[in-house]
Amino acid sequence: MRAQDTSRRLRRAGAVVAALVVAASIGSTVSARPHHGAMLDRLERRLELLELDGETREAVFDVIDDARAQRSALRPEIREARDRMRELLAADAPDEEAVFAQADAIGALKVEASLARVRTLLALRALLTAEQWQALHPRRGERGQSGDLRE
Question: Are 19 and 96 in contact (CB under 8 A)?
Fold first, then answer.
């Protein structure tokens, strides 16, 4: 009986530690990558340098504006989900099921944000010629990056 109790406590403690690690990494993984807002700013600066006709220019910046609106709508949801996770983990005896459910909710919001970035890039790519797209993205090695929108 004591061995079962000890084993159960160890499993629970391990689950709580895992949840704490996940919660701690939530902020660090997001900040380790460029934020969507920073990506949009870099895109906008690079798009300004392209010689786009008026119609394409307007369409491109509409995509950027829509992406900013989507990002602004999602940010408070992510913030609230993280705050809820902190509350759950601050409890004397965190509810393991609730913690994992909240981790799933945060993960779903992060996936949604990631998909929004991809949709933005695909929408922009559809508006630009192959040459404009190439000019927008530096080639590997030119800036020491992999051709993404980091600087």
Answer: yes
DSSP state, residue 128: S
Q: Label residues 69-94 b or e (16+ Cβ within 10 Å = b).
A: ebbeebeeebeebbeebeebbeeeeb
CA–CA separation, 44 and 92 (whole Å): 47
At residue 72, the 3 state secondary structure works out as: helix
All domains in the chain, ordered by first residue: 2-136 (1.20.120)
Cβ 140 vs Cβ 146: under 8 Å: yes
pTM flag (> 0.85): no
Q: What is the pLDDT of residues 28-83, one digit of tens each?
A: 344 333 455 688 888 888 888 888 899 999 999 999 999 999 999 999 999 999 99
